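Appendix C: a fully annotated inverse folding record. The material below is reproduced so that readers can follow the format used throughout the book. The structure is listed first as tokens, followed by the designed sequence.
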């Protein structure tokens, strides 16, 4: 579509209707939860990778690319603020004549265009390329440990595997004060190993976001644990019906009787949909 300022404003006017259809009918047809979260960006990217072998295929599917771009952009706007803009004057602009989202953190001078992100994720073939672009933008404006913890809480990271501020654990990764410095490292069997030292918390926070970006800090949550193989299959089917992504991580020979512990993990904010599910399938909690 060749944009003019007039039809771009018309395009903006129809965003709400397009997203109502995309997050409802399209989402149900394709077994997705599209709730404008980081986790939903990963699920949507996996859908893209399953349906398009290269960027040219997606570009040719203009309607879907339009919807994908809007959804990704609206998710960016939810986390970053900003508004939809288009540059129709500067042909040297890499996003010339493309809908883009302004970033108020940079006084709206630095924009981000979601359509190229949707196509680029195919060649990257990572499954989290788009969400990592957003995490990188979030990290740029997160300067304090308080704000880091707030972000991790909001995104439902596993705070039982990272020791920071009020979340104190004896094993695994930690961010802590050491005199005037900040230290990041890991604890193992009571021994703390400092991996990196920082003179200020802004550098420490930036380093933790790097670990998030590289998936070293975990947003997975144990949601099913049972000895029964049929029960874990039923749990899988229920999650599929709920359109929630998950992974199996069974442990053969878990106890002295050699039984297998069947386990399922879900990710990020999807845990908020699974209170009743966990009561049903977390046998490690019910001692049954």
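Designed amino acids, in order:
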């Amino acid at each position: 579509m060749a944009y003019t300022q007039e039809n771009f404003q018309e395009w903006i006017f129809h965003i709400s209707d397009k997203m109502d259809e995309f997050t409802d009918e399209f989402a149900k047809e394709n077994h997705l939860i599209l709730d404008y979260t980081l986790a939903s960006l990963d699920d949507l990217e996996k859908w893209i990778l399953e349906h398009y072998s290269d960027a040219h295929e997606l570009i040719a599917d203009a309607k879907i690319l339009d919807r994908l771009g809007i959804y990704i952009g609206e998710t960016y706007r939810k986390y970053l603020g900003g508004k939809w803009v288009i540059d129709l004057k500067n042909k040297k602009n890499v996003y010339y004549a493309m809908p883009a989202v302004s970033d108020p953190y940079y006084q709206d001078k630095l924009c981000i265009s979601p359509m190229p992100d949707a196509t680029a994720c195919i060649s990257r073939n990572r499954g989290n390329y788009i969400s990592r672009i957003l995490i990188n933008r979030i990290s740029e404006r997160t300067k304090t440990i308080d704000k880091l913890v707030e972000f991790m809480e909001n995104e439902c990271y596993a705070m039982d595997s990272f020791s920071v501020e009020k979340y104190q654990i004896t094993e695994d990764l930690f961010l802590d004060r050491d005199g005037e410095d900040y230290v990041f490292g890991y604890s193992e069997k009571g021994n703390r190993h400092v991996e990196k030292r920082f003179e200020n918390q802004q550098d420490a926070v930036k380093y933790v976001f790097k670990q998030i970006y590289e998936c070293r800090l975990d947003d997975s949550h144990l949601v099913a644990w049972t000895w029964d193989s049929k029960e874990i299959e039923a749990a899988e089917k229920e999650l599929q019906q709920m359109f929630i992504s998950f992974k199996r991580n069974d442990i053969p020979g878990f106890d002295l009787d050699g039984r297998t512990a069947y386990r399922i993990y879900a990710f990020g904010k999807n845990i908020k949909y699974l209170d009743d599910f966990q009561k049903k399938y977390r046998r490690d909690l019910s001692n049954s």
